[in-house]
Amino acid sequence: MAHHIALAFLVSFLFCAQNIASANFDFYYLVLEWPGSYCKDRSVNGCCKPTTFSNYPLKEDFLIKGLYTYKASGQPVTKCNNTKFYVNALRNSIVDLYVQWPSIKCPSNNGVSQWSDAWTNYGVCSGLNETAYFEKALQLRKKINLLSVLECEDIYPSDDFCYSPYYVRKAIRYGLGADVGIKCSKDKSGAFQIAEIYVCVDKTASKVIDCPVLPNSNCGRDVFFPDFYNSMLKGISASSFDPLEMVTSQ
Ligand SMILES: *[C@@H]1O[C@H](CO)[C@@H](O)[C@H](O)[C@H]1NC(C)=O
Ligand SMILES: *[C@@H]1O[C@H](CO)[C@@H](O)[C@H](O)[C@H]1NC(C)=O
């Protein structure tokens, strides 16, 4: 009898352990950040050129903020295992990362710490290896061209106009075929501006889907979609710095 109970415990333990190991996510949020809003965000201290900027200036376009693993219930799925981050695993896509997934935080930096955070928080839950996880994010970013989707509906970055967030979402729904979430920040004068667009993507990280759950929108009735130019990024001394050179020459 005792044996049976012990066995039942063992079986249920193994079963649960396996459930935890495969504690699975249901979809991804590809989060795209509008740098023009980041530069004007009253809660941060401006925006800075990445240290790789002189060799790899940014396109004046949406940046990748993250590719987040989520449950359909709206819970993030994070830190599933301790697989380490190696910047060398990104050598084939590093130039795209400099341009599409840079950090424009001040002080200037080379982006590595945000990629490392992306991997250790979410990437390790994706079931992809590090190389594939970042490549998927880049491929999605290339496929999802929000600026042209918005332009088709006459929504342009501008410091002069504001838009109804409802209209912006509708324009994106029309262009991408799926609803997205919009998060706003406030500029220095307290006006709402479009900070991030949450696009939902299926588990294979290849198709845009309707969001199982939308992040809470915190936008007012009108939002700005401010201009962005590379010239808005605060400069650093000319020395450019390539994280891969640093790592591979160790
Ligand atoms: C950890 O997660 C990564 C990414 O999902 C996966 O490639 C790797 O096999 C996992 N490692 C372990 C030990 O479960
Ligand atoms: C990462 O995953 C991709 C896709 O499954 C595979 O082709 C590649 O060989 C893997 N790379 C490593 C270093 O395991």
UniProtKB/TrEMBL annotation:
Cellular component aspect of the GO annotation: extracellular region
Keyword terms, alphabetized: Signal
InterPro entries reported for this sequence: RNase_T2-like, RNase_T2-like_sf
SUPFAM superfamilies, sorted: Ribonuclease Rh-like (SSF55895)
One function term, GO molecular function aspect: ribonuclease T2 activity
Gene Ontology terms describing biological process: RNA catabolic process
Gene3D superfamilies: Ribonuclease T2-like (3.90.730.10)
Signal sequence annotation: 1-22
Record keyword Signal present: yes
Family membership noted in the UniProt record: Belongs to the RNase T2 family.
Protein name as catalogued: Ribonuclease 3-like protein
